[in-house]
Model the fold of this input.
Amino acid sequence: MTEASWRVREEDVSKIASATHGDPFSVLGLHRAGNGMAIRAFVPGVERLGAILESGVTVPLERRGFGDFFEAFVPGVAERFRYRLRAVIAGHALDFQDPYEFGPVLGPMDDYLLVEGTHKRLYERLGSHPIHHEGADGVLFAVWAPHARRVSVVGDFNQWDGRRHTMRKRVDSGIWELFAPGIGEGTVYKYEIIGVNGDLQPLKADPFGFSGELRPSTASVVARTDGHEWGDEAHMAWRPTVEARRGPMSILEVHASSWRRKWDGGFLSYDELADQLIPYAVDMGFTHIELMPISEHPLDASWGYQPIGLFAPTRRFGDPAGFQRFVDGAHRVGLGVILDWVPAHFPTDEHGLAKFDGTALYEHPDPRRGFHPDWNTAIYDFGRAEVASMLVSNAIYWLDRYHIDGLRVDAVASMLYLDYSRKAGEWLPNPDGTNQNHDAVRFLQDANASVYGAYPGIATIAEESTSWPGVSQPTSAGGLGFGFKWNMGWMNDTLSYIALDPVYRKYHHHKLTFGLLYAFSENFILPISHDEVVHGKGSVLGKMPGDDWQKFANVRGYYGFMWGYPGKKLLFMGQEFAQRAEWNFDAGLDWWSLDHASHRGVQSLVRDLNRLHREKPALHARDCEPEGFQWIVVDDEAQSVFAWLRYGGPGAKPVLVASNFTPEPRYNYRIGLPFAGRWREILNTDAPEYGGAGIGNFGEVHASMQESHGLPASAEITLPPLATVYFEHDSV
Done:
């Protein structure tokens, strides 16, 4: 065979050396040539290069010119064979496998499902995956960059040289893939991309990276998320048997960076959080922990709400396995874990998704729909099938690989409206002039239907602050399909009311009654979230009027009102013991506050409220149904008194809730009741153990058949000042 017939063209050698070849797999690796096989490799920085064949024979590879391209011809071989490359560097031999020796891992179905937008578990194919392929251990890298001219995976393993591991493009989908033998978990990497115009892009982290470096470093890290040995079988078997809207749900919202810090100011690890936070939440009686976003994010001050690594638990607290142990530990003691999820927008840091392949790939190309003016972030192109599929896959990923019990979806209102936070002329309306983002609506419906279909028993929760109809209605009925919606109106009304001096509350009585006009239009969660105790808003305690005694009494009375009101409960960390200072994301909570009896009293109250919420069906079973609520005293503005009944359905004892939001005790206050007989006082926020004055009803009242408030029976009750009391009928 002549030399020219097996040697590659000089043009191809030049393009391989400059990493501009459109199909490096057509040149590098093992290729049939006449009556034998040609071996070609590009390996910079070596003195000599050879190929060790399966037979043990070493074939020297010839250097082309003075470059780093090597080739050799093995005659008389008709079938493909395995080989290893042996490089001599500074007199030392190094054996390794050639990535261009291996065939593709992905198949046509992966291309089809990605483009169609129906691949619900893209994380099983894209990203970095330690696998065994064609007889070798290594990592499959796969990334979607359809407009790129060239994509290479770079890292310490190839000296960050984009010429070494140039990837194979799957033209039907725009996925680039490469099996890199000889590397594994812990490998640090990024993608080097030549854009559509031939411009070298900033090095990009992996959109599907399962782990990342600790900020300020920004590379992705190869990690497995499919090998954890779970011990939460009982929890996972129980979860789909419970209808969330009819069960107790009391959520402690937690910012993991600032719940507690180490003595030197460092972060607790996932394991340390498991050891400390989980027992605390269980002791306090919360049913769930809701974690503010733990997806990888570059800026601490964003609190996680500007994530770049949607598939990576932040390295601030450890590796993915550590987060899996955290969730597993919570489940083993019956505590659910909800994760804040941010599919609305992403930061424009150059190593992230923005202009990923040199084009507006993940973001909408029109800045009137693709850029968020409030947060200087990019908005996902929800109408692009591949982007929507990635986001839905991410939701499923957290439920699959981490057994998460629910997703609280951030900033839903910003997704639903094309003119959200935009002035006239700054937004692009629909052809009919309307402002609904139909693409985002379809995405949210698909995401909710997908996660509920795959994981019955989980809960999705919308942070949605407008009157958009049907947020928590099924998609089959035209709703968005969420399980719950945050009741932002209730939050704003009640906090503004309780912040008033009691003398003025009678003029704003409607702020506590208005919410019942729409309380059952959605499945609501009552949120006192992080947003209400930061940026100068003060803590819950700090919002209260009066002297210190009145402040604490107001907090206790307000929490009693909240836990007695229909709807699931959410309370931001630190507010359960009435932290005096507003939240500081850069430090731990003021745990020293618990040295003081007044703070311990509020903590004890919240613990007891959670216990009653779990134990009394009347306080949770019909949170989302009008049959579970009945006003008794709704119009006593002059005395700022409210009273209502909660019902839990057949066989459940009704609970009376009554609040007095003035500093004057109300003695012999007659309240109508559905039944005569003994009503036990099961909670009094003015009790001494909570820091109150101890004004109450000596544990019970007796109702007689004297009609009042349209009910057949009634009782005279003592209503303590700035307090809420609960009574349960004895015999029902």
Notes: The first helix runs from residue 3 to 6.
